[in-house]
Amino acid sequence: MKRIITICLLTTGIYACNNGTGDAKTVAKTEPTQIAKADPTDSPEFQKGLELIKNSDCATCHKIDEKLIGPAFRDIANKYPDTPETIDTLAHKIIKGGQGNWGSIPMAAHDKLSIEDAKSLAKYVLLLKNK
Fold first, then answer.
1. Contact 122, 91 (CB under 8 A)
2. How much is the pLDDT for 37?
3. How far is CA 11 from CA 4, 18, 35, 69, in A?
4. What is the pTM of this model?
5. Rounded to an integer, what is the distance from CA 114 to the centroid of its chain?
6. According to the model, what pLDDT value does residue 38 have?
7. Among candidates 122, 35, 37, which has minimal Cα distance to 82?
8. Which segments of the chain are extended strands (E)?
9. What 3-state DSSP class applies to 99?
10. The Cα angle at residue 124 between residues 120 and 125, in degrees rounded to 5
């Protein structure tokens, strides 16, 4: 009887330690999800973009969650994928201005802005995507 109880306890302990899987790949698959939930406001790209926004006229036409004259930043983020091509496209739109993607009101050109700063602004906006 003692052997049966000992075997049951050992089996239960082993099962609990392995979380019922015994497969190390399961643990590795859950880690990227935890990384994806990281707060984007902690990233240097977010902070740089936020600083550029504060020192520009962006807030005249855009808010984070509400349409003002232009679309909400979050709506822009949710429309476009976060890819290098998108960042490049949005940076050029920020510099050259544009019309038609979000309605009839044109976005003013920001031709004094460097391509690096425009890309930082685009990255900031894309970090606002709902996940």
1. yes
2. 57
3. 10, 11, 33, 65
4. 0.69
5. 23
6. 65
7. 122
8. none
9. coil
10. 120
Residues 6+ apart with CB under 8 A from 80: 86, 90, 126
Strand partners, 67: 62
Residue pLDDT tens, the chain, 131 long: 555 555 544 444 444 455 444 444 444 444 444 444 567 788 899 999 999 999 999 999 999 999 999 999 999 999 999 999 999 999 999 999 988 889 999 999 999 999 999 999 999 999 999 87
Q: Which domains does the chain have, with CATH numbers?
A: 1-37 (no CATH), 40-131 (1.10.760.10)
Residue count of the chain: 131
User: Residue 47 to residues 44, 104, 111: CA-CA distances in angstroms?
Assistant: 5, 31, 22
Residues 94, 124: Cα–Cα separation, whole Å: 13
At how many degrees (to 10) do helices 115-126 and 84-96 cross?
A: 120
